[in-house]
Amino acid sequence: MLYDIKGLNEECGVFGIFGQPNAAQLAYYGLHSLQHRGQEGAGIVTSDGDDLFPHRGQGLVTEVFSEEILTNLKGHHAIGHVRYSTAGGNTLENTQPLHFKSRTGDLALAHNGNLVNADSLKHLLEAEGAIFQTTSDTEVVAHLVKRSKLDTLEDRIADSLARLVGAFAFLFLTEDTLFVAVDPHGLRPLSLGKTPDGGIVFASETCAFDIVGAEFIRDIEPGELVTITKHGMSSRQYMEPRERAMCSMEYIYFSRPDSIIDGVNVHTARKALGKKMYEEAPVEADVVTGVPDSSISAAIGYAEASGIPYEMGLIKNRYVGRTFIQPSQELRERGVKMKLSALRGVVQGKRVIMVDDSIVRGTTSRRIVGLLREAGATEVHVRITAPPITNPCYYGIDTSSKDELISARLMPEEIRQEIGADSLEFLTVPGMVDAIDRPFEGPLKGQCTACFTGEYPTPLGSLELEAKL
Question: pTM score, two decimals?
Answer without folding.
Answer: 0.90
